[in-house]
Write a structure and sequence with these properties.
By secondary structure, the chain is mainly alpha-helical. 63% of the residues lie in helices and 5% in strands. It contains 37 helices and seven strands.
Amino acid sequence: MRRPSLAALAWKGAGNLPAQLDSFIGRRQDMVDLKQAMSSSRLITLVGPGGVGKTRLALQAAAESQRAFKYGAWFVDISAVYEDELLIPTIAEALGLQSRSSRWAPAVLSDQLAGRAMLLVLDNCEYLVHSCAVLVDTLLKACPELKVVATSRQPLEVSGERILRVQPLSVPEPSERVTSVSAVERFDAGRLFVDRAKAAEPRFMVTDENAGAIAELCRRLDGLPLALELAAARVRHLSPQRILERLDERYELLRRDSRATTPRQRSVVSLIAWSYDLCSPEERTLWARLTVFSGSFSVHAAESVCSGDGLSQQNVLDVLARLVDKSIVATQWHAGDVRYRMLETIRDFGREQLVDSAAELTFRRRHRDFFRDVVVESYPVWFSATELQCLSWIRAERDNLRAAVDFSLDDPVDERAAVVLGTALGGEALLTGLLQEGRHWMDRVVKAVREPSVGRATLLWINGRCAAEQGETQAAEQLLGEAVRLAEILNDRHEQAMATTYLGVSRMARGATSEAVDLYDQALELVRDIDDPMARAVTLPRKGVAMYHLGHTAEGMTLCRDAIAISDEHQEQWHNAEALSELANLCWLEQQIGEASSLATEALRINQRFRNARGIVQCIETLAWVAASRNENERAARLLGAADALWRSTDASLPALAAENHDRSAAQARRALGERKYAEAHRAGGESSTSENVAFALREEPSAGDEDARPRGPHLTRREREIMDLLVAGATNREIAAKLVISPRTVEGHVVNLLGKLGFSSRVQVAAWAAEQQARHSHS
């Protein structure tokens, strides 16, 4: 039995481990134990309380071990997933896998991963511990070369699980007197505190005078990395002695009020509470309100959702920058933009404050309304030059859209918002191939919100098309038929035309070509006298293919060209790629090999930008036929190998007509090369990554990097460099503002951008990095 390939994984042999921006301190024995466990066990669960450093340890071990796994090491954070049904789609998405099956069952994922030597790191399994246990058990039984490292606050209780309990970092014994720099650095907690303190304040130094306070601080914080890092952030304002005094006050107060809480838990909560107390009223307010976001968020979303009632929209960026500076909020670089997120422990504390203020419902509704409004505003531009930008926004905000849909379904005030929000997740499913992810939400919304609306019609046809892509013809036609009827009742000809066209696609897949043409004609008639380029661009190439196969060759090709012209006129790309791909196939059938190659190449470039796995494999398939027609048999064999692997990894079935062309091209290449050479070339395509195969198909060198990765050499504007130079000199924001004759708020904005571009969480880290760069250049 042939196993599915992971060639669709973008970084075979490397994985997707997030870059670590700070040094890994201590845990030498933990690393030894973990690596030994990995050599003898296939499931290792790192167990320990929040903030103890489970994730950091797992990532470090994965980074040091990933070269031992042919298919690399992969990281999946489960903390933002609250529903069991989304666990497997979330993992599949992180691995770059897609499926057309009706449900992402554990067996589907295990079939995709079978026979692949890889390391999977599942982080924060305590949120869905039972589902994680079932999934991991299934994967390990079906995938003998897979190893899993899980982090959780409790064991998974799976057969063969090796449990490693992660302890806090080493601290001095209570009786040990620490009076020197060398003594501080003998224990891991002290080394971590000093490292993070220097990152926060480059001028910080350990002295014989403060060594004792540092040691006592590490003891009081029980060596918990999260607590130590929060405390280290305070050295910008306080000496270790003063930090210890303030911590003592807060700790003792908490101990009196909560004797049932363990000392270790008290130390973390007390430090977070102290950080909260040190914040200004505006900072506390924003901290609490930001907890309505799920995953990461943008500054625009924060300004829109969290402002009001004592916090002006104009002031949100200033306050957010201060929370970043205080290590309450972290920055990250995503697709060319700065985004923000909170650690779950810090988020939980802030959420308690929001609940206590009786404002949670208000700001969850504002969160829901913000994302609903953005989706409503962006729908008209889905057929335009900005559609890729819209898609990127949805990708970045998927966790927030999930949370907003979930909340809307439980909120009687406006459950209809779930319809609009569901179309965004469904639309992305169509564009990226994350069909099960989209259908999960659309199925829930369609069943829960039955009130007639244009949004419901949209949701129905998107859901219907997803069902058709997954091969569920009966379910697809039921959804599409309901969409047609509802749109007709509402007199919305665009939605009726879209649903009618995809109903035609379903009939075409069943072999009812003439019936499909009738439906395409109905769709085109609906938009004949209205301005609806999207409906025309969707319908024309599909009718063109149907007409071609009915023997109307010239008309079929002309219809495809008409669709391309419409997309070109509106600078639209997604539907353009579909029409280009369809026309490329028709040109190949007509022996117009040069034009078929040019069209398929152009479509492939577009699909690569959209990361559309199915579009990519269709183009590679066509280019394989082109190569065979040109007697480039070794090239054809490799492209066919790539296509075979991609079809299997996307769980999509090769259409019958395409399968005939595939087999014919393979037979020719096999005859020309001989079985051995054909098999070698075919295997090369099957074992290469998607990026490598796309580059080969385009006759280019593979490009390194990822759109979400922080650039190695970030581009800084002239103003950002001026501010960075002043940061190195130790200037405060107010001093920088006076020096450059700009407002402190503008300085804050530039500093936030610098943090995002450089991937740091503190402005002092920027200064330290810049000083290091200057020193490096001066010695080069």
